[in-house]
Amino acid sequence: MDTSIKEAPEYYRCASEDELFLLGERLASRLTPQTTVLLKGTLGAGKTLLVRGMMSYFGVSPGMVASPSFAIVHDYPASIPIKHLDLYRITDLDSWYQLGIEEELGRALLLIEWPQLIEAEIPSPKVEISITIEADNARKVAVVWS
């Protein structure tokens, strides 16, 4: 059970893809290799675009960043150790543990899309980012640090 203290949510509104990308860069400036980022949102909400902004901050070309939907895990040559995961196709905790990623907790910055199955397994420090699509197609981003 996670007993960490959560800060009050931060809210952002991004009217364009460029703004969402820049928010990713801005948030990345506060991340460390010990942090796990849990990215939530519907298909097409902008999770991978936000990750592209984060990766850009760490020196990775945005063109190199793609959703790891089929590979499940991508490693990138960055200024710190980073793993980008997409757990959309992971259906049980055994599959999560078979990936061996829990060994990376606290050693690498983990950027996890579709984390709902494993979020209770993730200790602090972590950041929960939820992206929703608004009626005008802008993105509302809620960020909780714990």
TrEMBL record:
InterPro entries: P-loop_NTPase, T6A_TsaE. Keywords: ATP-binding, Cytoplasm, Magnesium, Metal-binding, Nucleotide-binding, tRNA processing. The keyword Kinase does not apply. It is found in: Cytoplasm. One of its GO terms (cellular component) is cytoplasm. GO terms for biological process: tRNA threonylcarbamoyladenosine modification. GO terms for molecular function: ATP binding; metal ion binding. The keyword Magnesium applies. It holds the Pfam family TsaE. NCBIfam families: T6A_YjeE. Belongs to the TsaE family. This is tRNA threonylcarbamoyladenosine biosynthesis protein TsaE. It comes from Entomospira culicis.
